Amino acid sequence: MSGFRINFWLFVILFSLGITLIIEGIVLNIIAMTANDASYLLEGTILIFLGSASLSTSLYPFLSTKTQKTIKPRC
Q1: How many helices (H) and strands (E) does the chain have?
Q2: Cβ within 8 Å of residue 17, ≥6 positions away
Q3: Among residues 23, 13, 72, 22, which one has the least CA distance to residue 48?
Q4: Is residue 75 part of a domain?
Q5: Domain count, the chain
Q6: Rounded distance between C-alpha atoms, residue 9 and residue 65, angstroms
Q7: What is the pTM of this model?
Q8: Tens-digit pLDDT profile for residues 11-30
């Protein structure tokens, strides 16, 4: 039961961090388009990348299983 709580809170923290970084990156990219500033565009792209990495790692504890599926040959 304790392992589930840790996985759940890890998911919540990483998921919220990922969503926040992606939204922040999109806002910076919009600012970069209106201000014609490449530094904002670069920062926004990096934040979107880090946010997507955080979202994908947040799902890892729920997608990994302890049992591996094996293919049984037909006889």
Answers
A1: 3, 0
A2: 51, 54
A3: 22
A4: no
A5: 1
A6: 18
A7: 0.70
A8: 888 888 989 999 999 999 99
